[in-house]
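Lay summary. Proteins are chains of building blocks that fold into shapes, and those shapes determine what they do. In this project we predict the shape from the chain. Here is one chain we studied, written as its sequence of building blocks.
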Amino acid sequence: MRERALAAAALLLAGSALGISGCERRQAPARPAGADSTAAARTAAAARPAAVTYQRHPVGGASALRAFQRGLGEAHFRIVLKLNRLDLAHVRDRDTLAVPYPFLDELAHSPFPAEIPGAAALPKLVLVSLRGQAFAAYEGGRQVRWGPTSSGRKDKPTPPGLYHANWKAKQRTSTIDDEWLLRWCVNIENSGISLHQYDLPGYPASHSCVRLLEEDAMWVYDFVDQWKLSREGGAIEQDGTPVLVFGEYGFARRPPWKFLADDPHATDVPLVEVEEALRRDLPGYGAPAAASGAADATPDSAAVDSAALPPS
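And here is the predicted shape, written in a compact code that computers can read:
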């Protein structure tokens, strides 16, 4: 009876907009069906309307969580997890989740700007906000994907700055613990920093890498272009997709998504903040498209190994 009541409450919360749409121990990677395509995501890009608000939902135990999940449907429940920077395995009984009303398209709930006019000449760009613990991917300055992250913990922070997608591998074994299987790795720094699938506990917890949900890690793996190396000597002839890490996480403060019920814009990454970081770290940002001669070149798609292994 209690589960039915909770499910009904969840349905009421979702309203008429409802629609159904980590460390891994060694196991073969599997690509779930229904992954968003870039083209489909692009058509859904839109700014969030100011009318979106957030309500607090106490989890209240495993059975209540299952009822809440069923009541919302998988598509909306996935949005709730993303907004709270969690994967399902790390939702705790005592957690209070921020739940949006109304539910919109997943991309419309992104904290990043839908468009970056100054980045229109960039074929691809990945942004990682340390303050907001989230990433966004852009094509021609238009956002096509976003998701939560877990960056480096306080004693192993992810250094801000400009990186590039170097090599990528569908799975690697961590050099810190050989039982940690890092899946869908995109190396951005050969000293040991990568984007990859891993646990998202709702706070920065990695060893300086940027952790992603599995669905996002697979998408990013397919989206980015690797570096292009010369046939002789392995010199870098062309950098891979730029990955800009910026901002600063407030380790001594409550996470910004915990304030969404009081301030619907608590996690926003304003355009001015993004453009400031791009001007500071991305050479030639804002220059006319004709000034970039390599914009149309596409790196090889085959994965390139490196001697450096990205730790978790």
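What the prediction tells us: Residues 2-14 form the longest helix (13 residues).
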